[in-house]
Specification:
Helices cover 32% and strands 26% of the residues. It folds into two domains: 122 residues, NAD(P)-binding Rossmann-like Domain (Rossmann fold); 204 residues, Dihydrodipicolinate Reductase, domain 2 (2-Layer Sandwich). The longest helix is centred in the C-terminal third of the chain and has 20 residues. The strands form three sheets. It has a nine-stranded mixed sheet. Strands 3-2-1-4-5-6 form a six-stranded parallel sheet, sandwiched between helices. Strands 9-10 form a two-stranded antiparallel ribbon. It is globular, with a radius of gyration of 20 Å. It starts with 5 loop residues before the first strand and ends in a 5-residue tail after the last strand. The chain is built from ten helices and 17 strands. Bound molecules: nicotinamide-adenine-dinucleotide.
Amino acid sequence: MKSGTIRVGVLGAGAWAQGAHIPGWQRDPRCTIVAICDVERERAAECARRFTIPHATDDWQAVVSRPDVDVIDIVTPSHTHYELATAALDAGKHVLCEKPVASNFRETRKAAETAKAKSLKTKLGFTFRYSPGVRYAKELIDQGFVGTPFIFNGYEQNSQWLDPQTPLRQVNPDADQSVIQVSSLENYGAPVIDLSHWWVGADYAQVVGTMRNFIPQRMVRATGRMMRMNIDDGDLYLAEYTNGALASIQTSFVTVGNYPGIEARLYGEKGAIICRLIEEFGKAETIKIATPDAVEFVEREIPARFYPRGGSNNESWRSLFYANLIANFLDEIIDDVPSQGDFTDGAWVQDAINAVELSFRERRWVPLPLER
Ligand SMILES: NC(=O)c1ccc[n+]([C@@H]2O[C@H](COP(=O)([O-])OP(=O)(O)OC[C@H]3O[C@@H](n4cnc5c(N)ncnc54)[C@H](O)[C@@H]3O)[C@@H](O)[C@H]2O)c1
């Protein structure tokens, strides 16, 4: 493969684009970023200077319609994803999109179907599928280490918005504040819900869940003032899988702890695995395992083959996990290896999120899949 062959246009030059996406693309010699776009023109220009990107613009349509661009990377606020992803697919581009594609599983499914019909590759920002520890765990699961899975426990929690003065983004300040809005469940929950599906290898049969607004008044970036924000800043649900396994999932951005805050545990008839993706004492993550005849959990070293070029467990999780995600997407585009973590997986995750919300609103177990 000639170096720099896959040409990428990035939409959004904010914190996550600069901290994870752009460093990921630039670490892989098989691609090159040809354009950066932000509706804030100066932010795009500054980002182009910082990362030596040849073209900066505030016109996303111009980037999406460029004939020399193969991949559109969407790192914009969540409410813009569906419009941008649909436009990119319509223009015949492969798409990497931050989660969620849309807050409604039907729209996510529609985008997945469009991509399939056009033989285009898609990938969602399910960052934690690509941690070296989680990938190692998946290999162990596939080799039969856990045996029949019994129980999955997933957590995505940290204290990012415990302080009400920390400006809140990705929220709609004009929403009806008498009704709690889904927030942590979707923005934090999606990647660990994805892991609950990927590791156990079965669909949910039904879910029951609840959510809570713990901190009522917050500083909101879009308005620049303290205001009532009735958002879910903590939630819990139970799931029963079609294969008989059980799951519990807990997400929150007001629970004390460091980033990113994932813990995934799988217990089965032959063994158990605990992955802890929480930056602590200079390490990005740990993986521990136990078996019925050695019940004390021992830490396993993550084999070097799960790390991206030049990566180690002492690197920031942001660039480390994203480098793996982007390398995997390039494998899918260039070598046509089977897709994973794509819009179809995104639609499954969104179905689960929408079902947990319905369960909370109607105070009942909700069967899955939801009505198409
Ligand atoms: N996967 C993960 O672990 C993870 C982590 C952090 C953020 N995210 C997601 O990444 C996305 C971006 O988050 P962020 O923290 O970088 O936000 P941000 O607000 O810092 O950056 C978003 C940028 O997009 C720009 N923008 C808005 N509309 C645009 C458009 N139509 N075209 C081009 N640019 C546009 C904004 O001006 C802003 O600069 C969000 O969806 C967020 O949920 C994912």
